[in-house]
Design brief:
mainly alpha; Growth Hormone, Chain: A; globular
């Protein structure tokens, strides 16, 4: 069947009602992912400062290591995704990867935060470089199969939002743990010892948590051996999928906009609000209200459709961040209110986006007869990481050309750059995403037709 004919499936108007995934499976799948999120963001948000201020490594050196590590992180996503699609074991396609990744995550997390005291200079740089590369490799080996496993748990159009809503809430709460760890180390009189102690506790506790989905969730036996035979062919199918192209482009745009919060929030807090004591609490407001909003968005998507509520939320996020342009010195109440609305709006995409990706994967099966959850999860991961890389590059360049100087009163051009990046970039990106997403056509009815056909195929011996 061609792409053109498959886009408008004509049989089975009613959407098939799949069995609702039991709550115990949702809880075993989603909430434990906070362990992975906490490990990732503690490294991503804090290690640069730790490496320069405590380990006394050159900032440029650490920056290059980070850039290369993130580049490898993005490239390794398609490898892990397509290889896990083709994996065949008695445990399934995804769980062996997750189980193998856990001890590597623990070992490499220890390498990063507890380097031998005798190492200095080049030897320490090599040690940290190896640790970061291996950590990102293990992260990919766990997170891509975990995303893929979630897409396989249910065939129901709306139950998928419930599953990924629980996952997104836990992943977001992991960021809060990372913020807490950063504050603990920062406040310690001996940051190196504090980081070592925290790392050891995190390795034991969070590794045990990450074992839960890998140990307790059974995979669908009928999906075994149905991945694409070629990694290049699988990624080619992703790019040829018209629904995937729109969805991944929207994810890239949205992540480019939301990426400014973690990067530019400290600049806005210190140089515009003049309240450095709020560096941690302000992002926490955004995170908390993002999590609170998830059940609302899951319910709303059932009534109004996934695409419609996500577009509405994009507009809300654009307006909330855009209004931050008018925040000035001491406007704490105003920025808090705006971050509340931004958080409430942003909770939608993390739950609805992966749910829609699972629907897109069903369309791919309709066309190709293969199940490529890994390839599609990898493509989504690549879009997210590319977006983060873009906003980091844009931030660095614009701050540099604006005449930004650290730890001093900023000139008008630098203040305008900070405001423009923090408020203008999300406003533009989320507005563009809302417009582009109007072209996404795989709604509840169309997905129902596709599911009916797939179920009919499986019923044929």
């Amino acid at each position: 069947m061609t792409q053109r004919s498959a886009t408008s499936v004509r049989s089975g108007a009613a959407h098939p009602r799949a069995e609702r995934v039991p709550l115990r499976i949702v809880l075993a799948y989603g909430p434990p992912i906070f362990g992975l999120s906490a490990l990732l963001f503690f490294v991503q948000f804090f290690f640069l400062k730790f490496a320069t201020d405590v380990l006394l490594l050159a900032p440029a050196t650490v920056g290059v290591i980070f850039a290369l590590g993130r580049a490898w992180d993005a490239v390794s996503d398609p490898i892990a995704g397509t290889w896990s699609d083709r994996t065949r074991t008695r445990l399934g396609r995804r769980r062996p990867w997750m189980l193998a990744a856990i001890p590597v995550l623990g070992l490499t997390f220890a390498m990063i935060w507890i380097p031998p005291a005798a190492l200095h200079g080049t030897a320490l740089t090599v040690w940290i470089g190896v640790g970061l590369f291996a950590f990102y490799t293990a992260f990919t080996a766990y997170v891509i199969p975990h995303l893929s496993l979630g897409a396989e748990l249910s065939t129901d159009h709306h139950d998928r939002s419930r599953i990924f809503g629980a996952r997104h809430a836990a992943f977001t709460l992991g960021i809060m743990l990372a913020f807490g760890g950063m504050q603990f180390v920062e406040n310690s009189p001996d940051p190196r010892a504090a980081a070592a102690s925290l790392a050891l506790v995190a390795i034991v506790v969070l590794s045990a948590v990450l074992l839960i989905p890998a140990s307790l969730i059974a995979e669908r036996a009928e999906y075994q051996g149905r991945g694409a035979q070629s990694s290049f062919g699988a990624m080619g199918d992703v790019l040829r999928n018209p629904h995937a192209r729109i969805l991944l482009f929207v994810v890239f745009i949205e992540m480019s906009g939301s990426g400014v919060l973690g990067i530019l929030s400290p600049y806005l807090t210190v140089y515009i609000l003049k309240r450095p004591d709020l560096i941690g609490p302000l992002p926490a407001i955004f995170v908390v209200f993002s999590v609170i909003s998830i059940p609302f968005w899951v319910r709303a998507s059932r009534r109004f459709g996934k695409r419609n509520v996500w577009r509405f939320a994009m507009v809300g996020t654009a307006l909330s961040f855009g209004s931050c342009f008018f925040v000035g010195e001491g406007d704490v109440v105003l920025i808090c209110v705006l971050l509340v609305f931004a958080g409430l709006s942003s909770g939608c995409g993390g739950a609805v986006g992966p749910s829609m990706l699972a629907d897109v994967i069903d369309y791919d099966e309709y066309v190709s007869g293969e199940r490529k959850e890994g390839a599609y999860s990898a493509a989504q991961g690549f879009a997210i990481k590319a977006a983060h890389a873009l906003i980091i590059l844009l931030t660095g360049v614009l701050l540099q050309v604006s005449g930004f100087e650290p730890n001093v009163e900023q000139g008008r051009a630098a203040e305008l750059a900070i405001r423009g990046l923090f408020a203008g970039a999300p406003f533009a990106m989320f507005s563009l995403a809302a417009v582009v997403f109007g072209r996404f056509l795989l709604d509840h009815r169309e997905h129902g037709r596709i599911r009916a056909e797939l179920d009919a195929r499986r019923a044929v011996p």
